[in-house]
Amino acid sequence: MSASSLARETADLLARLGVADSAHAGGSLAVTSPITGERIAEVRETDAAGCDAAIAAAEAAFRTWRLVPAPKRGELIRLFGLELRAAKADLGRLVTIEAGKIVSEGLGEVQEMIDICDFAVGLSRQLYGLTVATERPSHRMMETWHPLGVVGVISAFNFPVAVWSWNAAIALVCGDTVVWKPSEKTPLTALATQALFEKAAAKAGAPAGLSAVVVGGRAIGEALVDDVRVAAVSATGSTAMGRAVAPRLASRFARAILELGGNNGAIIAPSADLDLVVRGVAFAAIGTAGQRCTTLRRLFVHDSVYDSLLPRLRKAYASVTIGDPREAGTLVGPLIDKAAYDRMQAALQKARADGATVHGGERAREDLGGNAFYVRPALAEMPAQTEVVRTETFAPILYVMRYTDFDAALEAHNAVPQGLSSSIFTNDLREAETFLSARGSDCGIVNVNIGPSGAEIGGAFGGEKETGGGREAGSDAWKAYMRRATNTINYGRDLPLAQGVSFDV
Ligand code: UN1
């Protein structure tokens, strides 16, 4: 495909998805496709006044939206899910073009949006509060969950639309409104998603201003973070970003939902089913070119299986097809940009200095464009869990370490600053249950006999320690998007005080 045809295809997709030309032509933010490194759009950025107006509109919309019964709010999300189904092929394709994901992963990302819409529709009839036993006669005590306000969503390039939808679908049924700052590397998929949302909102007869996209860099993100009208900010990205955002939110007592770095490990025990391991590790470590926050980055392999597993992994690593993610058969698309490639090479350099034997990791497919960065995924056999292993590098590097003692492996597994996702491959019940137990993995996601990535939306998603502690998507993650009121109602004629206090006037 020639340079101009990729830009043309992008423009056609955007037109079909309902995005006005003026939003993505002639603007100040150049968007490149990592597939070829060529420019595919010039997006208009939101200035400070525009950001202020978006927040003001969201705040105004919140005042009406919070009064709409939750199941009616769910109806909007049901209609949005239908728009996503109808547009799945186009939006998935745009994800592939803008973020470089292979076709099935681009489509999978849109499926994840559809799934969370379905979840949110059901949730809209299940925003339950508790009834609590009260110590006072003729009293009733209960909890009520109310809409919270404007929710700011800051998302990353690697899941350019799904992560927003986990937040937005839930926030909207909870009665909140949403202002979204997508990654400046992937504004097109955000504009397309917003256009689909607006279609659904028009069909639902929903008020204007429920959702807005603000496009730009750090300044726009800071505007959301610092604005007192924004009640909560859900931010996905690096730990460095979280460190900048969290104290600013804390200083104004705003709610923070943080999903930051992961450095996900897996333990391969002596009884592991190695066929499962090879497939599970390959998807988790190589999939999305190592650019998921749940990507498998550290592998602890028991001494007794190390020498049979490693050749199989090396074979899988050497055989995966790297290339244009639009082509059938490709499993590894490009890194997002040159900076990602440089960081990967720097990490491999450090690993070698620490004594690693590195297989792969070199640049590939330079024929696809000088400004496109494809790599052979890297396996780095490490003598120990050194500093570089404890650091998240957003690229396909799997650090492999041997172990002999299960408890020592568990300790090493937890000895990193991040705590997102984790796995054990074992058929030993004691090991599996220990890994899941209080002294097991310290992560927010803990799996047995499947890799750490590719979570379903039904569970709460997020992690501990430097991962930030936030939870998004399923289970009761919705509670972070609402405010809880504890209500005590006296239906008697007396006024008994709690704790037996007497106060007669
Ligand atoms: C992310 O990389 O920010 O569990 C999210 C997974 C996906 C989501 C990843 N469902 O890998």
UniProtKB/TrEMBL annotation:
<keyword id="KW-0520">NAD</keyword>
<keyword id="KW-0560">Oxidoreductase</keyword>
<dbReference type="InterPro" id="IPR044638">
    <property type="entry name" value="ALDH7A1-like"/>
</dbReference>
<dbReference type="InterPro" id="IPR016162">
    <property type="entry name" value="Ald_DH_N"/>
</dbReference>
<comment type="subunit">
    <text>Homotetramer.</text>
</comment>
<dbReference type="GO" id="GO:0004029">
    <property type="term" value="F:aldehyde dehydrogenase (NAD+) activity"/>
</dbReference>
<comment type="similarity">
    <text>Belongs to the aldehyde dehydrogenase family.</text>
</comment>
<feature type="domain" description="Aldehyde dehydrogenase">
    <location>
        <begin position="27"/>
        <end position="484"/>
    </location>
</feature>
<protein>
    <submittedName>
        <fullName>Aldehyde dehydrogenase family protein</fullName>
    </submittedName>
</protein>
<dbReference type="InterPro" id="IPR016163">
    <property type="entry name" value="Ald_DH_C"/>
</dbReference>
<dbReference type="Pfam" id="PF00171">
    <property type="entry name" value="Aldedh"/>
</dbReference>
<dbReference type="InterPro" id="IPR016161">
    <property type="entry name" value="Ald_DH/histidinol_DH"/>
</dbReference>
<dbReference type="InterPro" id="IPR015590">
    <property type="entry name" value="Aldehyde_DH_dom"/>
</dbReference>
